[in-house]
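Forum > Structural Biology > Help requests

Title: Can anyone predict the 3D structure of HK97 gp10 family phage protein?

Hi all, first post here. I have the sequence for HK97 gp10 family phage protein but no way to get a structure on my laptop. I'd be grateful if someone could post the C-alpha cells.
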Amino acid sequence: MLKFDTAAFQDAIAKATNQIAEAVDESSLRAAGFAGAEVFRDEAKRNAAAHRKTGVLEKSIIIKRVEEGSDGNKRQEYVVTVRSGAYGAKGDAFYWRFLEFGTASTPASPFMRPAYESKKQEAAAVMAATLSEAIGRKLRK
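Reply #1:
Sure, ran it for you. C-alpha cells for HK97 gp10 family phage protein below:
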C-alpha cells in the first residue's frame, strides 16, 4: 500500500493562491475588462457599417467604464454603447435606437445585439488571456 501525505502540497497551494490573488489588482482587471469590451465594440462597428451613410454611427460606438459598477480590484464594469448628444445635433447618431429596435413603421435592423451574441465566447477568451498575461507579469517581478 502506498501512502501519500498532501500536507506539504496544501501549503504550496495556499501560497500560490495568495500570490495570484495579490497579482489581480485594479489595473489588471481594467485591462481585461477593456479587452473584452473592445471585441464587442469592434464587431458592433462592423455590423453598423451595413447602415453606413456618413460613418457617424460607427464613430459613435464607444466603450465606457461604469464607475458605479466598478470596485477597485474586485470588479470592473464596462459598457459598449452609442454616444449621443442633443437630439438632431450634427454628428449625433440619435437614430441608432430606431435601427436597433425598429419603429412602428420600420423593422429592427440590430447591430449591437448580434455583436454580443456572436462574440461573447471570444470576448471571454480575450479577457481570460489578458488577465492571465497581467498575472504572469506581476508574478515574474
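The chain has a mean pLDDT of 85. Residues 26-140 form one domain.
Shout if anything looks off.
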